[in-house]
Structure formats: structure tokens, C-alpha cells
Design goal:
By secondary structure, this protein is mostly helical. It is built from 4 helices and 2 strands. It has a two-stranded antiparallel ribbon. It starts with 19 loop residues before the first helix and ends in a 15-residue tail after the last helix.
Length: 141
């Protein structure tokens, strides 16, 4: 594990073949399918011992479900909560990018997927933290 970005050899990111309409107008609950066995594989691939204290990590979708991310192992990684920025801050980026695609229509779905998979931290520090989405403004770097 090297900081706030996953190892690209383990987690390059992967997306489902979904339309913008599906991403913007359907719940992610029906698309969420990460089993305990998959989570164990993700932790093992990164050499993170289990169990971890509650809240220390979450098995996260690198490209989030709300942007059409896949449940494939190539899109999952054990994201730490700390040091900051961690998974809470990445959640802000996910909300921000989803709004850009689905509410503001200032970004295509492909652009949002690329932005988060390339460098979500840059999006957090330059855009998401400056918005009023959720609790993003309260997070510093």
C-alpha cells in the first residue's frame, strides 16, 4: 500500500457497461456485489493483515459504483481511513463527480471515471473540497 492511491498493478480500475441514464437514475444497491471472499482476496493482494480495527479500512471501489465502477477485483482495494486524506475524503470526490455528470452536466461519465482513476486526490484538493457537497469542505489536506 502506497498512500492514497491503489497499486495500479493490483487495482487499475474497471467499469460496468452502463449508460449515463443508468448511472444517474438507478440505485447502486442493485449493482453492489462484493463478497467476503472477494474482500479477503483484496486484503491479501495488498498484504494488509486481517482483521483490522473497525473503521480503519474499507474495501473500496476505485472507480465508484455511482460512476459505473465494477465489482471486479481489478477495481477493489483496501482503502485506509487515515492518514488523511483517506476513504472519507474519496467519498467526497465521488459525490462531487457524480454531481458533475448527473446534476450539473459539466462532465461526461468517461471524464469523471478518468478523473477519479487517474488522481482522485487532485480532484479532492482542487474541486470537491471547495464545494458544498456533503461534508467535503470540512476536510483539509
Amino acid at each position: 500500500m502506497q498512500g492514497v492511491l491503489p497499486d495500479p498493478a493490483c487495482t487499475p480500475g474497471a467499469v460496468m457497461p452502463l449508460s449515463v441514464d443508468e448511472v444517474c437514475n438507478t440505485s447502486t444497491k442493485g449493482r453492489r456485489n462484493v463478497t467476503s471472499a472477494m474482500k479477503k482476496k483484496v486484503y491479501a493482494a495488498y498484504g494488509v493483515p486481517r482483521p483490522q480495527p473497525s473503521g480503519a479500512y474499507e474495501v473500496d471501489h476505485f472507480v465508484p459504483l455511482e460512476l459505473g465502477g465494477s465489482n471486479d477485483l481489478a477495481n477493489l482495494w483496501p482503502e485506509p481511513a487515515s492518514p488523511t486524506p483517506g476513504f472519507h475524503q474519496k467519498d467526497c470526490v465521488e459525490d462531487y463527480l457524480h454531481a458533475q455528470v448527473c446534476t450539473d452536466h459539466t462532465m461526461s461519465l468517461g471524464e469523471a471515471q478518468q478523473a477519479i482513476a487517474t488522481d482522485w486526490l487532485n480532484v479532492f484538493t482542487t474541486k470537491a473540497r471547495q464545494t458544498s457537497i456533503g461534508h467535503c469542505k470540512s476536510y483539509g489536506r
